[in-house]
């Protein structure tokens, strides 16, 4: 997570209330309305159940206390207001304490479709509904604890596990259709349609060692998604010897990337 961004997070007042200008509420409303059309039949049922449980407003940016009330009651989690980007160390520390980092700014109109920094729409709309699910919440907690004690080199490999599950994970139930649980897809209209309906990306069964060896880029549609059968499989992954697999992945090295190298700025 690099430092330096044009976005500045809003700070809460003495009562914990964050004041957003009306134009930012308008952007939330537009983003919500657009994704609300895309998700039925594509988002996993656990996400939709969480979205319903949170009951977040459609016409304004929610206050973190509103989200916390539901998360605390369901899985014991809460949000933590953070600047636009934070260090890996701080990220793992928060997850290990059952606090989900939320950058308190929202994208501008010119970056409506995609931005590299995770904004409040990505964090709240994309991730928080599934934090009401025990398996997803437990996996996120375990991941934070692992990362907190991992070396800098190990964290780079752990980042791939998070990327291909929490951010860009897909489910394929035995007797049901393909569906999404990754927040990076759920908060992106373009990636939602691409991940579910395009023939371009590969969809591979989840294999921990392969996941840890797969390169990714944050600024493109994903060329590969890893698929688990149901959300409870996150509990099974959490019980695996993940750091042992990290060691093996480091020894074997990365797969060749399935994407072109990023063009250098002139």
TrEMBL record:
Residues 1-266 form the Biopterin-dependent aromatic amino acid hydroxylase family profile domain. The keyword Iron applies. Pathway: Amino-acid degradation; L-phenylalanine degradation; acetoacetate and fumarate from L-phenylalanine: step 1/6. It is an enzyme of class 1 (oxidoreductase). Keywords: Iron, Metal-binding, Monooxygenase, Oxidoreductase, Phenylalanine catabolism. PROSITE patterns: BH4_AAA_HYDROXYL_1 (PS00367), BH4_AAA_HYDROXYL_2 (PS51410). PANTHER family: AROMATIC AMINO ACID HYDROXYLASE (PTHR11473), PHENYLALANINE-4-HYDROXYLASE (PTHR11473:SF24). NCBIfam families: Phe4hydrox_mono (TIGR01267), PRK11913.1-2 (NF008877). This is Phenylalanine-4-hydroxylase. It comes from Shewanella vaxholmensis. The gene is phhA.
